[in-house]
Amino acid sequence: MSEPLVVMRDVNKHFGDLHVLQDINLEVDKGEVVILIGPSGSGKSTLCRTINRLETFESGSISIDGKELPEEGKELAALRADVGMVFQSFNLFAHKTILENVTLGPIKVRGTKKADAEKRARELLDRVGIGHQAEKYPAQLSGGQQQRVAIARSLAMDPKVMLFDEPTSALDPEMINEVLDVMVELAKSGMTMIVVTHEMGFARKAANRVVFLSDGQIVEQATPEEFFTNPTSDRAKDFLGKIL
Ligand code: ADP
Ligand code: MG
């Protein structure tokens, strides 16, 4: 048995008086797709952000592929590059072309040669269905297209794990599926993924496990089928009653 790719042990974090992450223990195996679900304010975004140290935490430990996350320094930058992150807002560089958006990280952070970075970027843009728009600027693309570029940009860094924080919640309804389709394909290709989403179709199609967070605690974990049809905790029942 190899070690899980992501290991969070007894992680605690406060924002002032708010105990936003309470003794979080979470292991994600290589190739596993985990859905993080829970009420607004339960700590889902904070949990994602602690995984690559966009947020600090007070106690506990987090390791990626067997290496504990240091608090700062060069090693942190290297480990962070192993963790791709896609947010609700796409955060593309407005004054750079789609191609430049995707090549920037590999060239600056990984030291990849420009020609190699561009070749790989074009492959990834093809993969997410944006290959013919590489020379355009972000504002010329729809929200769904921009989010697919954001996914390609993350993949260009060859991350070991991809975090998605509500990647479709800022999109118009007709664009949600084009992004989810890319994510399903990514899941099938074996990418390790942690996805904050309430999209049950995606959960059922692609997820191995649902982790339910409430008030900063992991309250329940189950397969999507079990969780959505037969939640055991009152908090999960209450939550599902509101979103279903
Ligand atoms: P979720 O993503 O599940 O909606 P968040 O992780 O964004 O939840 O937030 C969890 C709680 O932490 C909320 O009560 C939120 O108001 C609070 N919070 C989030 N970020 C900060 C911050 N930078 N400073 C203070 N409180 C914060
Ligand atoms: Mg959030």
**DSSP strand content:** 15-25%
Radius of gyration: 18 Å
Spell out which ligands are present.
Answer: adenosine-5'-diphosphate, magnesium ion
What would you call the structural class? alpha/beta
Number of strand segments: 10
Order of helices and strands: EEEHEEHEHHHEHEHEEHH
Biggest pleated sheet: 6 strands, mixed
Give the number of helices: 9
State the shape.
globular
Span between termini:
38 Å
Strand order of the largest sheet: 6-7-8-3-9-10
Regions with pLDDT < 50 over 5+ consecutive residues?
none
Helical residues, percent:
25-40%
Q: What oligomeric state do these chains adopt?
A: single chain
Mean pLDDT: 95
What does the model show?
With 244 residues, the chain is an alpha/beta fold. The protein has nine helices and ten strands. The protein has a six-stranded mixed β-sheet with strand order 6-7-8-3-9-10, with helices on both faces. The protein is globular. The site of adenosine-5'-diphosphate (ADP) has 11 residues, from strand 2 and helix 1. The site of adenosine-5'-diphosphate has 11 residues, from strand 2 and helix 1.
Outline of this structure?
The chain is an alpha/beta fold and 244 residues long. Helices cover 39% and strands 25% of the residues. Strand 7 (161-165), helix 6 (173-188) and strand 8 form a beta-alpha-beta unit.
